[in-house]
Amino acid sequence: MSFRIRKWVHSRAKRSTFLRRCLPRSLSLTMKAIRVKSIDEIEVDPAEKKPKRPPPKALTVDIVPRPEVKDEEVLIKVHTAGVNRPDVLQRLGLYPPPVGHSGVLGLEVSGTIVDMGKNVSAFEKGDSVCALANGGGYAEYCSVPFGQCLPVPKSIDMITAGCIPETFFTVWHNLFQQVNVFGESLQSGQSLLVHGGSSGIGMTAIQMARAMGIKVFATAGSLEKCKACEDAGAEVAINYRNEDFAEHILSLTDNKGVNLVLDMV
What we know:
single chain, alpha/beta, five-stranded antiparallel β-sheet, four-stranded parallel β-sheet
């Protein structure tokens, strides 16, 4: 047997062993998921007032139906679910889930594909992925359109991978897929100003833009936050509490300004 054939057989055998260990032999029709209790279900101390909106202790683990997989979806056995501001707003009842999607919280996950629809390409059962979900991430299983999944690089652990999709997808779309009124998108060699540079979106934008050859400036509200922005790759971070960032940017760019401003609302 040739070396190439032996290597192929060995790799397939390793993958087969991995799948037997990691994939459930049969999928339960139910699963554990985190549900938000209604106000009436929340127990409070007699001395306390009933909250107007569900507090953090309103989160509880329940048994719910496992999601069905549509033709262009994968079913992920969740390893890690990221926590994002929309989750908090949804728990408070201020951010309803999209119509037709899961009412379970959770917009990003990492885990292992255990089932898939008939139209799924690019992935196989047993693949480790991270994904931007339409909801349902705070559960044992989460169904996601396969186009919203990314393979997890070997250099990244599953906990870290679970924190990637929400910010990285958002930044990539806004910086490199969107176009301005002139029909142009951000290009290598151009410049970017990131407001709120020390936020999750801000730090991701700084790093991604630098990796794409873009000169990055940032604003933040303290010296500590400004240093974090510069450590992440910003050319200059401006403390907007102490100085006029617009004037500072003009002085740094020979009065030309920047090609794009990313401002978190």
